[in-house]
Amino acid sequence: MIRGAALAGPAVAVAVAMAIGCGGKRAPTPVGGGHDAGDAGLAIDAAAPPALAVDAAVAAGTAPDYRVIDVSHAGSAKVTVSWPDASAAMRRSPGRTACGTERPPRARIGTLHGVADAVVMIALTAGKAPPPAAPLRVIARDCAFTPRVAVAPGLGGALELQSGDEAAQTIVATGLGQPWGAAPAERPLARAHLPMLGHTVALTLDAPGAIALGGVGDDPALIVAPPTPYVAVTDEVGVARFDAVPAGSYPVMAWLPPAAGQPALLATGTVTVAADAEAALTLTLTP
């Protein structure tokens, strides 16, 4: 399971401002296609509370306290996540999986120290409309998940879990609440049994928060159902870009999920955005 690092001070304030916390689930969304089974083979945790407070937000694709406003003269933001002091051990694979494939390193770091696969959030309670709900597919193959870190387009879409192997697999989904906060709250969500190649089941992402996918190999996948459209994953050079950001100053958080047996890392800062202009911010991770 993924566990967040213990944080204090400004980090907690940012996490509270983002108001992210996994809620309940609706019935799984059927997925079409060869060998697809919709909710067949998917066991939902009976202890999970129903999704009530977030129902209206799901229809809008955002968390309940988020408002859609005019962003015709908004600016943009470029956030770079850097880890210049990362050791060589953090950059190399910790070994091989049971399938004989190479496990990913603690962090994928570019030549200019940019860190890929970090989750970046701008703490906004009002801004652009979210994109239409769309499915996010995660494939389990060769004792690993692809993608390993991802942000769903918004709330209300399906998290599709698909087998890429001939052998049967069982994926365990765990709600993490706010793993970047001071008091992470883990709870089981579902178990998906994938008996054959191409078999797919789906969960509805009906509440904002983070979900860990385990049961396949040593390294879980991390999926974020975003409370606002201002959540992204850094690219190969450590950059996350945000458009239609209303003018103003906002807290920003970068969270690198745990990997390769190492704990999570977090960096915070503030970005100031002007109308019709691009703001740039670099956040530096430290152990």
Quick tags:
287 residues; mainly beta; four-stranded antiparallel beta sheet; 19 strands; disordered N terminus
Count up the domains.
1
Topology as H/E string?
HEHEEHEEEEEEEEEEEEEEEE
End-to-end distance: 20 Å
Overall number of strands: 19
Residues in helix, %? under 10%
Could you say which structural class the secondary elements and strand pairing correspond to?
mainly beta
Tell me the strand percentage band: 35-45%
Specify Rg, calculated over alpha carbons.
18 Å
Query: In which order are the strands of the major sheet placed?
Result: 1-11-10-13-14-8
| Weakly predicted, low-confidence segments | 1-37, 46-54
Task: Characterize the overall form.
Answer: globular
* Overall pLDDT score: 83
Q: The biggest beta sheet, please?
A: 6 strands, mixed
Number of helices: 3
